[in-house]
Design brief:
Elements (H helix, E strand, L loop, with lengths): L8 H6 L8 H9 L3 H7 L14 H14 L3 H7 L1
Length: about 80
């Protein structure tokens, strides 16, 4: 089972517009066709026990961005 990466709607309604948005990351998302990468990692599944995992494509994106932000694994997890 994978974690849901969608924030609860109640919180969204209470936040000012553009909170949680990152123009740099949004541009990157628009520039890269993620479909081939998503197809490669789509068959990865979470372990049957333990906490739910993050979706595989999200983890690929994190691994690509982590060096740019010089962030540790715990820092990236907190950012997620």
């Amino acid at each position: 089972m994978h974690r849901s990466t969608q924030p609860p709607e109640l919180i969204d309604a209470r936040l000012p517009p553009r909170v949680g948005h990152n123009a740099r990351l949004e541009r990157l998302t628009d520039l890269i066709d993620w479909t081939p990468i998503e197809d490669l990692v789509a068959d990865l599944h979470a372990a049957p026990v333990g906490r739910p995992s993050y979706p595989p494509l999200l983890m690929v994106k994190v691994l690509l961005l982590q060096p740019s932000y010089q962030a540790s694994d715990p820092a990236m997890e907190e950012a997620l």
